[in-house]
Amino acid sequence: MAVETVRAKNIGLRGIAVADTKISYIDGEHGVLIYRGYRIEELAQRSTFLETAFLLLNGHLPKQSELEGFGKEVLEARELPGFILESMEKFPKSTVPMDVLQACIPMLAMADPDLNDDSREANVRKAVRLIARIPASIAAWNRIRNGRKPLAPDNSLSHAANFLWQLTGQKPDAAMARDLDLCLVLHADHTFNASTFACREVVSTNAHIYAGVAAGVGALSGSLHGGANERVMKMILKLEAELPSVEEVGPWVRNTIESGKKIMGMGHAVYKTVDPRAKILKEMSRRLTDMAGHIKWYDYLVRIEEEGIKEFAARGKTGISTNVDFYSGSVYASMGIPTDIMTPVFAISRISGWCAHIIEEKFAEAQDKPALYRPEAEYIGNYCGVIGCVYEPLTARG
After folding, report:
1. Which of 187, 225, 268, 294 is catalytic?
2. What confidence tier does 223 reach under pLDDT thresholds 50, 70, 90?
3. Which domains does the chain have, with CATH numbers?
4. 118 is catalytic
5. Minimal CB count within 10 Å: which of 54, 169, 213, 305?
């Protein structure tokens, strides 16, 4: 007896609302991104990452005293527990940074005195420690894998500046530190993307915040979610080596699209126009690549963007434009950030959004919200009636 099944049209939960949120909102048709009611353009111009993180976690912009207290808590949590650094020393030096970060999250949980306290206040304290220690973990691994000792944090430096110091051993100027801080604001949250949903799904089981963040890091490590900025940068370096002139980018774009290959950093699951974050990063890329002596990177990106939009439109695919990853790779590379550290830098920012969503999930106000995510699936495997298939002994099988 055959079973007829109707497959859901929204494969991958596309277009299906699974929960309420007050944290962020996207209008993909008009290129709008809002954190807690504030447009990303205004936050990018006027806010800082720590202020934005406070906003995401607490639902309001901080007063001066609140921001100072929050910054002090992050600063005091910067130091990594010694056993984590000792563990890193034993990791294979070829281990990719995202896998190291994935391994560090459970170890950070072991060092958290509030681990078994699931109150809202304790979860905010845990979020602060994660915001402080994820950058330290990434920077420490970059030093260790290159045969150097991790650097102690410099508490005279801002959050972004201290990360660059611990990563590279060089203290950035104020302008570069501000640029990285701005990048962290732009990446801090983006509604129910794959990694954020992973965080929320895990803590819906009453798992602790570190388990949720570990799931988020795991989702971000996948090639269909995180890492696009890294792949854009690899694409540009390859083009720079193979194409003697920017003028040859047009034919390359046409050939790439005609052959059905992807152009990294173009297109988005939600935006049907330009990603508002990409507009800000484009100008930053122009300025930083010029300062770093790599303006050609920017020239390639602009030409790919122009030719790509034109070619997609000619094929009836309107609304495909650049996303946040398209220009961010060149920005990070101009700051001296290694290519395989670019996705971990994404996590340095997104940890604020992940933690905000985890806390919202744990303390959801809706009374009708299920206690546990439990979606259904359509079974399309073997079916032998109500009694099931006949089990044959091993000796009787073909």
Report:
1. 268
2. confident
3. 16-224+340-362 (1.10.580.10), 228-334 (1.10.230.10)
4. no
5. 169
